[in-house]
Predict the 3D structure of the following.
Amino acid sequence: MSKATIDDVAALAGVSIKTVSRVVNKEPNVRQVTREKVLAAVAQLDYRPNASARSLAGNRSYVLGLLYGTPSANYILDVQVGVLNLCRPQGYDLLIHPCVYRDENLVEDIVELVRQKRIDGVILTPPLTDHMEVLSELERLEVPFVRIAPTLNKELSPYVETNDQEAAYDMTGQLIAMGHRDIAFITGHPDHRAVAKRFDGYQAALKDRGIPFRPDLVENGLNSFASGEVCARRLLGRQPRPTAIFAANDDMAAAVMMVAHQQGIRIPDELSVAGFDDTPVAYQLWPALTTVRQPVQQMARKAAELLLKRLKGKDVPLPVGVLSSSLILRDSTGPLSGVAGS
Amino acid sequence: MSKATIDDVAALAGVSIKTVSRVVNKEPNVRQVTREKVLAAVAQLDYRPNASARSLAGNRSYVLGLLYGTPSANYILDVQVGVLNLCRPQGYDLLIHPCVYRDENLVEDIVELVRQKRIDGVILTPPLTDHMEVLSELERLEVPFVRIAPTLNKELSPYVETNDQEAAYDMTGQLIAMGHRDIAFITGHPDHRAVAKRFDGYQAALKDRGIPFRPDLVENGLNSFASGEVCARRLLGRQPRPTAIFAANDDMAAAVMMVAHQQGIRIPDELSVAGFDDTPVAYQLWPALTTVRQPVQQMARKAAELLLKRLKGKDVPLPVGVLSSSLILRDSTGPLSGVAGS
DNA sequence: TTGAAAGCGCTAACAA
DNA sequence: TTGTTAGCGCTTTCAA
């Protein structure tokens, strides 16, 4: 009973294998009685279609590939969950494929994956979303793909994005509204262009509020805690010292908080700190970190949805999903003590 | 050129397809000249064996399945990386399969995955490692599996484990050596038996050092930050107040630190805090958290290694891997101020 | 609405 | 050391 094939089912149900195939694949044009007969046989034999045979004959695998560089664990896991939640109920599984962005075998690895496993579709996360070589290779392979938060060549594929820039703009606006004028910014990793938009939002907010931009209050981080620490030390040495620091991600913001603690700078009384991403770290810090939450799971789910739609031929011309990030105001930001608000 | 088959290669190389198959699968008994001819043809045609055909004919898929409940993102990602590092170079890919431990479809889902995708082997992480129903189903399906940190029925499969209990023992010993006597413990989620061993280590250390066990200094957490917060408030209300709190994981330890901060209790002067896992949170907290680091990636790698060995028939009788955790002493623990060390 | 027959591209006996 | 011949279990024309 452990390995019934389509022939067994057909024999038991007294129909041809083609009919079994129709029923199993939920195709139309099968009489209700026939369908029921087949389903009964399927149940009785505990029949499971063999994915390999199906894949070989049908030239598709019911497997999606998830390609990612090495962003944070939480981000990736959220993406995985979001994608799986949508695609598993539809019979698709997920093959994961972490990549090293600067690896010379990057493209070759991907080609191998797609061609060998007959991957039906690919989902890309930053910074791979903007790796032109990868993108053109995927096009050459004619495998449909969808991108989460791409920044370049958006016409190349369906994609999902958030309003990062706007969120950074709003966060900066909040700080300004609290009375801050000397607001520093720690940028993200240069490979990670999505993160660059956050800096744009910061600059735009300053400009719109007529706050002079101080280049000495910008430090370039690499998304890591360690890089944030270096930036924080520099920024806290500037004169006049910034009264708020906005980091392009939570890890770097956490580093700012640590440096501030070490230097006896009180948060938020003497220094407000804001991050971006709302990682678990954010609420485990003390004081809890003000940050921006991206709906990562939903983005991934939406991306999977767009991809599956493509696979099923519903060829909507370049569908695009836009989801909103939200400000999470916690305790690490506040009005300057002894400073009047604006 | 995009879809050469084994026949094309055979034709171009002037050999039979069986010979091509031999070369591609690195089988012995092929003359060097022949091998080179074939490899040249493979390169020229950019031939990639079709995984589905291979799987169908050979009755195996070159895909491993990773089953996990919902432990932390970092843990899972480390496991994924560790497994992939070992299995990708050997031609195996990884299908991920997050499970809901208490879901009634749990077993059915797994059966479907294994049978449909013809998964060659399965890797289990806690708490699924101890889910008897899942285990016996896997046995019935006759799919080889390996477990990471199982606590029950260890004879059922190869497995990899660490010396959790010993590490907890050592950590407790450290606290005692620093002069602490009233050491509290926050236990982990009851489904997660691996975490229970940490409590055993704590108790053993107290006993061996002749420190009376105070049941009022034990609180039952659920591995989450929120549960840790509740436990911390209770523990810090006990009389006499504990001078150290050892939590079964970092998230709960982080909660202890937050509550201490809120109550104005200085760390480590008035309270030492220790965690377990060395998650990124640990060093982003202030003061940085003393904790225990498990070599998760290496464990996963080892697990994959044991599994692949099994698949290749080298049937070592129940191989077992044991790796060591290490204490990471940071700033959240220290001698009591004004209290003489032991 | 149903079925018959022909592969999909490979591996696995078995021969030679 | 190499080749021949069957399938693996499905999907897909194309007929009926």
Q: What stands out?
A: The domain at 63-162+296-325 of chain B is CATH 3.40.50.2300 (Rossmann fold).
